[in-house]
Amino acid sequence: MAGIDKAAIGFSIAIVAAGVVFAFYGSGVQDATPVVSNPVASAPSVTKAPEPKAQADPFADIANKVKEQANVQPAMKQEMKTEQKQEMKTEQKQEMKTEQKQEMAGPKTVKVEVPAGSSTPGCEETNKCFIPASVTVNVGDTVEWHNADTAAHTVTSGSPADGPSGEFDSSLFMAGATFDVTFDEAGSYDYFCMVHPWMVGNVKVN
Ligand SMILES: [Cu+2]
Fold this sequence. Notes:
By secondary structure, the protein is an alpha/beta fold. It folds into 2 domains: 2-79; 109-205, Cupredoxins -  blue copper proteins (Immunoglobulin-like). 44% of the residues lie in helices and 21% in strands. It has helices at 2-25, 32-42, 50-105; strands at 109-114, 134-137, 142-147, 156-159, 163-169, 178-182, 187-192, 200-205. The strands form 2 sheets. A 5-stranded mixed beta sheet has the order 2-8-7-4-5, with no helix packed on it. A hairpin with a 7-residue loop joins β7 and β8. α1 packs antiparallel against α2 (32-42), α1 packs parallel to α3 and α2 (32-42) runs antiparallel to α3 (50-105). The termini are far apart. Copper (II) ion binds at residues 119, 153, 193, 195-196, 199.
């Protein structure tokens, strides 16, 4: 009986060792683990061979871990792709919303301030005799000037050098008053104040 037991133990060790070697070098193959598990499963029939099992387990764990990582990494990649797609969809939705808002908003009014102190020279040095000095609007939009100064001013199309161009003119409008122009034609409109020729501005209509 003892001779048979020794032979059985030796045989099972050989099988497990072969399985371990196969699992170690064949870990890249997806079917590696089932091959390993077969010798391990047959080991309990040889009751006096606990050592081969103990040796086989660490390698089987490594093989399983390698296999798990191989499975996990594609899953992570898929998650990343899904997140990127969702981000792109969100951006597209935001763009669509912005476009819809612009279409729905229709003509708008852009406000320009005639600031306090602009009746004395100096504001032209920082281009702040009208704030903002340059505005860009679309055809159909309105520009509204508000006189926040204590002096009266004009908003007159043209330039101090060439004089009024005739497109629009507020004539003198008082402190606290407003003057507005709705632009129906695209173009670049220079304007100035006839009382204070250092005060210049521009409206660009697209
Ligand atoms: Cu003025």
